[in-house]
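Human: My hope is that you can spare some time for a protein that puzzles me. I am handing you a single protein, as its sequence and its fold in token form. Could you go through the record with me and say what the backbone is doing? Take your time, and here it is.
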Amino acid sequence: MIPMIPFLFGVMGLALGAFAAYAAGGKNRQAAKHYKKIANELSDKYTNLEKGYHQLTDENNQKIDELNQAREVIAQNTQIIDELTSRYDNLEQEYHQITDENKQHLHNLANSQELITRNKQVIGELNDKFGNLQKKYDELINGDLLDEPN
């Protein structure tokens, strides 16, 4: 029986070692399950973040495209505004030229009307002094035409 004591201690050590290994393995399995769960959660969170990143990138690219289109429209509008401003300036210059010419024509017309009024006054005075000059003028012209030698 004494020779069996070491064997018995060996079997007991083996059983204790197996039990300890099994217990340690159980803890490791639980820890592995826990870490696997955490890793899966982190992987899901990373996937969600990556999807959000790509979505934001797409939205930003779309907004950049919209802003570039708006910038092009603004550039075109600026060109149109510059052209219209230039045309307006030309029209304004022409308007001022025409206005100045019209002022000169109105001044000349007023002077002509004043001269006509003075001529009528002089003719009226001459008519009063010498009789109806128009009638005498017409008679003179008609008489000269009839008396013309051939």
Remarks:
- The chain has a mean pLDDT of 82.
